[in-house]
Amino acid sequence: MVIETRNTDGTGRSEASVFENLPEDKQRRILGAAVDEFAERGFGGASINRLVSRLGIAKGSIFQYFGSKQGLFAYVFDRASGLFADNLRQVRDQSADEPFFDRLHRVLEAGVAFIDANPRVYRIYLKMLYDESMPGRDLFLGRARAYSAKFLRPMVERAAERGELRPDLDPDFAAFLLDAAMDRFLQACVVEEMDGGLNLRDPAERAKRLRELTNCLRRGLGAPQGETP
């Protein structure tokens, strides 16, 4: 899977093609070390010197492959976003014929399973989310939100066509609300201080609260009982 990497001005990076021509095992080593560095220290604290020392490669190689530290972060972020997106998209598409709130629950479960299996990848997103000084942060956040809207809007529209949602519901607002609820829940599953004492790191408790979240959304967004065709 190749995800286009961009500079903060939105232009494509040509350097990434050099990196993608490397042997796959070398690509994995570099990306794995970069994920560790950004997940542990965020963009501002990440060090190219420390990264190349860990890898045993020349510092100039990183700049040849990615142009800058920002280019490296952009590449890592896009790859991480692509993995997350592919995971959720597969669940969404497999459940296309199921009732909307059952689909939504499955997507939420897939999101939780992904961050459980890829905690370092998700922490890169969290580091970026809370680092207001990071160059290009607004662009990265904007792209993440735009993808979420693109992902959720077709689900909402299909549910509305089936009469599963309140007829007065604005699809754009519904997609925004679902994205906000999902994003906040996933953050709370990782950052203990954000879970409000719900103990969301415990798998059984998390599954219980996930069902409650789905039911709350069902009651707030779903068509009144008896109106669904």
Number of strands: 0
CATH homologous superfamily assignment of the domain at 75-221: Tetracycline Repressor, domain 2
Classify the fold: give the CATH topology of the domain at 75-221: Tetracycline Repressor, domain 2
* CA-based gyration radius: 20 Å
- Helix count equals 10
Approximate shape: elongated
Just name the CATH architecture of the domain at 75-221: Orthogonal Bundle
- Beta content comes to under 5%
> What is the straight-line distance between the termini?
41 Å
Low-confidence stretches: 1-13
Helix residue percentage: over 70%
Largest sheet: none
**What is the CATH first-level class name of the domain at 75-221?**
Mainly Alpha
How is this structure best described in words?
This protein has 229 residues and is mostly helical. The protein has a domain at 75-221: Tetracycline Repressor, domain 2 (Orthogonal Bundle). 71% of the residues lie in helices and 0% in strands. It contains 10 helices and no strands. The chain has helices at residues 16-20, 24-45, 48-55, 59-66, 69-94, 100-117, 119-130, 137-161, 171-190, 203-221. It is elongated. It starts with 15 loop residues before the first helix and ends in an 8-residue tail after the last helix.
Compact description:
The chain has a domain at 75-221: Tetracycline Repressor, domain 2 (Orthogonal Bundle), CATH 1.10.357.10.
What keyword list fits this structure?
229 residues, elongated, mainly alpha, 10 helices, Tetracycline Repressor, domain 2
Furnish the topology, listing elements before pairings.
Layout: H1 16-20, H2 24-45, H3 48-55, H4 59-66, H5 69-94, H6 100-117, H7 119-130, H8 137-161, H9 171-190, H10 203-221
Helix pairs in contact: 2-3, 2-5, 2-7, 4-5, 5-6, 5-8, 6-7, 6-9, 6-10, 8-9, 9-10
